[in-house]
Amino acid sequence: MSAALAASKILKKLAEEGAEEEDEAEEMRELANHYERHAIGVFSECHCCDEERAQRLLIRISSSWGQTTCLRLALEADDKSFVAHSGVQVGQRSLWGSGRSKVTLGFRWSSNGLNCC
């Protein structure tokens, strides 16, 4: 799941900055969406089998991807479909309510909205 979300993030960034032609950029955006759908599929399967473990998977820090979490990768990639998944929403609500969001995600709320720490 982390790898798919990281691939989505990288491809979206490349489409935004590195594509020389619009066709190339569109192909990268389509591929980014493909990886996002795979991440959704993996999370959905995990969530169906064990909701609690799926929640832990969202916030587990991955050393392979720069000490970040799946949830943070999805937010940074602007993977709206992944973040909109009902299981992800439940996880976010529990994080915000528990006060763990700043530590776990590296984000915090301020008067200006959501900021990266």
Automatic annotation (TrEMBL):
One of its GO terms (molecular function) is ligand-gated calcium channel activity. It holds the Pfam family TRPM2. InterPro entries: TRPM, TRPM-like. It comes from the Eukaryota. It comes from Hucho hucho. One of its GO terms (cellular component) is plasma membrane. Residues 11-38 form a coiled coil. This is TRPM-like domain-containing protein. It is found in: Membrane. Its main location: membrane. Keywords: Coiled coil, Membrane, Transmembrane, Transmembrane helix. It is a multi-pass membrane protein. Residues 1-85 form the TRPM-like domain. The keyword Electron transport does not apply.
